[in-house]
């Protein structure tokens, strides 16, 4: 490092001397790279100045933007170092101007999405700034000009990384943590639940860890649950309940207020020290419970209601002894209630499925059981209606009830009974195929456009003859009227005109069969101009003849 | 009633035969030919179907166009209309007829497909 400094100084002096005498100085690539490397954020201001002046005197290109950002980073670091130094000086010294620098520097912090607040120079500068600001403020006993949400955002930025690039960065974070835990003005409070934020009858206590930034428990705090309300119904369950401290953890017996199962939104306030910052938190707590199935009644109901239903009651977790038979004339029905085991309150869990499993073929069909307005679950199976799901395969199906929810501690899979379903035999497929979803599908061949139906050739030929027949009529009429070519003069223009005219008609035919418009227009231009000139002359001669005869 | 219609028609035919110059009669024959051709094409379309519709259209438009151009020629050639066509000699009318026909046939052949 010292050698680098020496090199740069030497180069700069040399350059200045040489530039006075010579206009061109040869520079090796190594020298240039050395000079460019010096312009980085780790250099001192004098190093940057020397290398930049050497580069510009040598006429080498500079990265001006890099130099500017290096100088700006220097500025922030200098102020922070000034703050740290000032915090060790005697209190009689005039530190007011330096104290104002805290506010100026705080204004340069970047707000990222309202969550993070940091310098664009990086984590190290932000963390060092925090520890410098608080140590100087403690030293002069004046509150730093940082607002509560700014402190929260600074905490978010500084402690967002879990591993650091360098020892100096790690040191800056540790020093910021120490100053945030131990200063006279602002102490951010971290509240987290111990384990999952969930209570149940077996675990009725909600446990919270309340610590400072260094994870030291704040024993002097008093934690109060200001309100707890159910997320679904927004009704308040708890108000102004105090947490008790036990073994460094704050706990509250939430189950004592007998909440129904579900999610609750807690609003917790931590008091006890005027320095506490971020001492109002929102927490989501889950209350779980155990479910019990009551009044499981299975019955086979005749469709035309002529025979009364036979209801069998089954107790969980036993299975019904007799199997139930249902064919096209009967419906199979199941009703039950789901209640909270301890309180007996009716529950509506997220998943209540009825699964029918054919043990022989491995088929399984799943239906949803829906609750009615009185929270009584009903399931009805109409064999005729549902035959497509079963592929009309008759046989014995094992009936399972599946109950599950995030707030249930005991999800249930219960083989309730066996059901024999009879479908009309002629609809059953010959072989039972496993549903193949991921095999290549049959290829779709491309269908070329079918040519349109044409009328028979005889009809077309007849009509062609019919359409051409008036031409014969025309010739006959002209003959009868006495059309003749007796005035035909054999002058060159006449002959040329007639040849040209015939050529035009021939060109039309060739256009129809072979050519396109552009070629035709080209030929037409040639033939047409010849015909025009010849025709013009011929008609002029005819006109002259007509005038002389008149 | 029919009697008067019949007498009007026979009178008209008599006048036509006697007073129309031969040239005009020839053009009238040509007009009749074009008319019949167009009628037969239309008949085909009505009876059998419009399968190559573009062909039918081009044929029919050719007939219609030719009819119109021939009528124009007849009007311009007719010596009784000489007052209206001072600048147009019969030769000029015929030349115009030929030129317009060239363009018409170019379009028709393009469209017949």
Secondary structure layout plus pairing:
The complex is a heterodimer of chains A (550) and B (113).
Chain A: H1 2-21, H2 29-38, H3 45-57, H4 64-86, H5 96-107, E1 110-112, E2 116-118, H6 123-140, H7 148-158, H8 167-182, E3 187-188, E4 190-193, E5 198-199, E6 205-211, E7 222-230, E8 236-242, E9 244-246, E10 249-253, E11 262-271, E12 276-277, E13 280-287, E14 291-302, E15 310-314, E16 324-326, E17 330-340, E18 351-358, E19 364-368, E20 370-371, E21 376-382, H9 387-390, E22 395-404, E23 412-421, H10 457-481, H11 492-513, H12 517-549
Parallel strand pairs in A: 3-12, 5-13, 16-23
Antiparallel strand pairs in A: 1-2, 4-6, 6-10, 7-8, 7-11, 9-10, 11-13, 14-15, 14-17, 17-21, 18-19, 18-22, 20-21, 22-23
Helix pairs in contact in A: 1-3, 2-3, 4-5, 4-6, 6-8, 11-12
Chain B: H1 2-19, H2 22-48, H3 53-77, H4 90-112
Helix pairs in contact in B: 2-3, 3-4
Question: How does this structure look, described?
Answer:
The complex is a heterodimer of chains A (550) and B (113). Helix content of chain A is 38%, strand content 25%. Chain A is built from twelve helices and 23 strands. A five-stranded mixed beta sheet of chain A has the order 5-13-11-7-8, with no helix packed on it. A five-stranded antiparallel beta sheet of chain A has the order 15-14-17-21-20, with no helix packed on it. Chain A has a five-stranded mixed beta sheet with strand order 16-23-22-18-19, with no helix packed on it. The longest helix of chain A is centred in the last third of the chain and has 33 residues, at 517-549. The radius of gyration of chain A is 49 Å and the shape is flat. Chain B has helices spanning 2-19, 22-48, 53-77, 90-112. Chain B is 82% helix and 0% strand. Chain B is mainly α and 113 residues long.
- Number-wise, the strands of chain B total 0
Number of domains of chain A: 4
Radius of gyration of chain A: 49 Å
Largest interface: A-B, 37 and 31 residues
**Counted beta strands of chain A:** 23
Report the end-to-end length of chain A measured between terminal Cα atoms. Answer: 122 Å
For the sheet with most strands of chain B, the description reads: none
- What number is the mean pLDDT of chain B? 89
Measured as a percent range, the helix fraction of chain B is over 70%
Average residue pLDDT of chain A: 83
Number of domains of chain B: 1
In terms of DSSP E residues, the strand content of chain A is 25-35%
Quaternary structure type: heterodimer
């Amino acid at each position: 490092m010292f050698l680098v400094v020496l090199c740069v100084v030497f180069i700069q002096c040399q350059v200045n001397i040489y530039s006075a005498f010579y206009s061109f100085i040869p520079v090796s690539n190594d020298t240039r790279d050395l000079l460019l490397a010096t312009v980085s954020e780790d250099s001192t201001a004098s190093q940057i100045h020397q290398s930049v002046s050497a580069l510009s005197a040598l006429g080498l290109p500079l990265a001006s933007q890099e130099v500017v950002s290096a100088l700006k980073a220097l500025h922030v670091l200098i102020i922070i170092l000034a703050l740290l130094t000032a915090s060790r000086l005697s209190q009689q010294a005039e530190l007011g101007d330096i104290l104002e620098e805290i506010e100026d520097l705080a204004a340069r912090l970047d707000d990222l999405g309202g969550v993070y607040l940091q310098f664009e120079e990086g984590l190290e500068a932000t963390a060092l700034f925090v520890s410098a600001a608080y140590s100087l403020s403690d030293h002069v006993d004046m509150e730093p000009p940082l607002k509560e949400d700014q402190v929260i955002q600074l905490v978010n930025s500084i402690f967002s990384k879990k591993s650091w690039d360098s020892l100096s960065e790690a040191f800056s974070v540790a020093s910021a943590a120490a100053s945030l835990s131990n200063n006279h003005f602002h102490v951010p409070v971290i509240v987290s639940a111990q384990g999952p934020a969930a209570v149940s009858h077996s675990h009725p206590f909600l446990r919270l860890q309340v610590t400072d930034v260094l994870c030291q428990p704040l024993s002097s705090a008093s934690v109060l649950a200001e309100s707890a309300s159910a997320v679904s119904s927004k009704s308040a369950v708890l108000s102004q309940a105090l947490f008790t401290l036990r073994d460094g953890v704050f706990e509250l017996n939430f189950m004592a207020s007998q909440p129904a199962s579900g999610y609750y939104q807690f609003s917790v306030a931590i008091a006890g020290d005027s320095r506490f910052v971020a001492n109002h938190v929102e927490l989501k707590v889950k209350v779980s419970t155990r479910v019990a199935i009551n009044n499981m009644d299975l019955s086979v109901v005749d469709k035309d209601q002529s025979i009364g239903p036979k209801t069998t009651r089954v107790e969980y977790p036993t299975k019904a002894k007799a199997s139930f038979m249902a064919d096209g004339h009967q419906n199979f029905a199941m009703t039950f209630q789901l209640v909270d085991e301890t309180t007996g309150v009716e529950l509506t869990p997220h998943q209540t499925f009825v699964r029918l499993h054919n043990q022989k073929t491995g088929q399984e069909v799943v239906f949803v059981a829906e609750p009615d307005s009185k929270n009584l679950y009903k399931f009805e199976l109409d064999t005729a209606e549902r035959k497509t799901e079963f592929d009309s395969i008759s046989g014995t199906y094992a009936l399972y009830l599946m109950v599950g929810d995030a707030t249930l501690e005991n999800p249930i899979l219960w083989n309730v009974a066996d059901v024999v379903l009879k479908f009309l035999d002629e609809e059953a497929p010959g072989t039972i195929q496993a549903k193949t979803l991921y095999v290549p599908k049959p290829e779709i061949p491309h269908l070329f456009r079918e040519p349109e139906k044409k009328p028979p050739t005889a009809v077309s030929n007849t009509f062609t003859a019919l359409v051409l027949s008036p031409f014969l009529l025309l010739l006959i009429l002209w003959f009868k009227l006495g059309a003749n070519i007796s005035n035909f003069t054999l002058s060159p223009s006449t002959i040329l005109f007639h040849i040209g005219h015939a050529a035009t008609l021939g060109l039309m035919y060739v256009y129809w069969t072979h050519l396109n418009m552009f070629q035709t227009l080209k030929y037409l231009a040639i033939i047409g101009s010849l015909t025009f000139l010849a025709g013009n002359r011929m008609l002029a001669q005819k006109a002259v003849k007509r005038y002389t005869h008149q | 009633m029919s009697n008067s219609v019949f007498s009007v028609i026979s009178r008209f035919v008599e006048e036509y035969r006697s007073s129309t110059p031969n040239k005009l009669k020839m053009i009238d024959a040509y007009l009749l030919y074009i008319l019949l051709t167009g009628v037969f094409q239309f008949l085909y379309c009505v009876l059998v179907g419009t399968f190559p519709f573009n062909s039918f259209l081009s044929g029919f438009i050719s007939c219609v166009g030719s009819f119109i151009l021939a009528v124009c020629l007849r009007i311009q050639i007719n010596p009784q209309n000489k007052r209206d066509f001072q600048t147009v000699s019969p030769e000029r009318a015929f030349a115009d007829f030929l030129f317009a026909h060239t363009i018409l046939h170019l379009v028709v052949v393009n469209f017949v497909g």
